[in-house]
Specification:
109 residues
């Protein structure tokens, strides 16, 4: 039997279609996946929710480039996702929380 095609040939080269195979992959244990899902759905800081969603998408098999460009609310550079993954692999969820981006808060006069 032939395998069922998920995407039509027309969609195969569409920028909105994630690649089916690529070299980079990420595996999560079930407790890591639950932790990231909880952070994605309930964390008070929006940047932690975004980073958690990105890592979950990568673990589902989507390419980093596709997730960076199409899988988040705002397009990001793929290097940004690699940096988030490195933080998560080194420090866990605390790494995603600890590395807040942006400059210092300005004081009012």
């Amino acid at each position: 039997m032939e395998e069922e095609q998920i995407f039509s040939n027309k969609d195969r080269y569409s920028p909105m279609t994630p690649k089916e195979t690529y070299r980079w992959q990420m595996q999560l244990r079930s407790e890591q996946q639950r932790e990231l899902q909880d952070a994605r759905d309930h964390h008070p800081k929006p940047y932690v929710r975004e980073r958690s969603a990105a890592i979950l998408s990568l673990a589902q098999g989507k390419s980093p480039h596709w997730v960076a460009k199409h899988g988040l609310l705002k397009p990001r550079e793929p290097d940004t996702l690699y940096r988030w993954v490195n933080w998560y692999q080194r420090e866990g969820l605390a790494g995603l929380v600890a590395h807040q981006q942006g400059g210092p808060v300005r004081r009012r006069l």
